[in-house]
Zn-dependent hydrolase, glyoxylase
Amino acid sequence: MVTEVYPHIFRNKIPLPKNPLKSINSYIITSEDRNLIIDTGFNTLECETELLQGLEELGIDLNITDLLVTHMHTDHSGLAPVLKKLGIQVMYFSQTDGNILNQTAQRDKFFKELNRLLGFEGENAVKFGKEFGARPTEPLDFHPLFEGDTLKIGDYSFNVVEVPGHTPGHIGLYEDKHKLFFCGDHILDEITPNITFWGFEQDILATYFNSLNKVYDYEINYLFTAHRKIIKDHRKRIAELLQHHEERLQEILGILSEGGKTPVEIAASMHWDLSHKKWSDFPSSQKWFASGEALSHLEHLVAAGLVERILMPETLRYELKNDSLG
């Protein structure tokens, strides 16, 4: 379903069947000379059909159209190869996320080791359903974008803004004249972006906080999100997200006060706004997402000196530090 949300800016709302996200907002910015698509949907027949119908409805010529992917997740990048075959001229990614997407061997090795540490192996192995779509089988030829780069589409001049956190190389587009921001999954209304673990060498939650505070200072009239509603008061929403994560951190400290636990055990004890009331009823993919988010919060508490990480032969265990008790 395509709607004009600002002059020459259209939202193509693409359903994501059997997914808690429900849909993705793919944006299309038009001009006489060039067009720009922002994010695509999963590489599934349902998403492809909706995306192409929206482009056809607007009469988009893909030979004068580029694609920008805000981050590597498959609901945003999945249909990039399809659009490339249909005529898209340039695909923009951040250097970081584009590399992660293309370096499949390294990425798969990281997630395999993470699954082992979290205990998602054997009968507990994570099963991602067909609703997540197919991943690219060949490296994508992309043009890397960096902080401060500019994309001009018609009367709009967009500055690239690096907002890592949801992924290590998440980017957004800011238009200063009209005070517009295309933020991908960096900030969402009604739901909170998943901030998962991306390696012990970085405190990804602190990185996300820094990116939120960075965008807080921007003057924004319309925050075009990738899921759910367009946001008019970004500062209010950022404050809510920061408060949400502070409550998460306190929740985890409370759980650890009962004794040391693995990330999965901690995730199973946390509150999640899902239709499934019991951890045992969670689909394996949602258990994985929840455990990854618990782990990013645990590592933030490790960086703060409040929690100790214990690396065991087959898993991770976290305990409160003695000086953080009481």
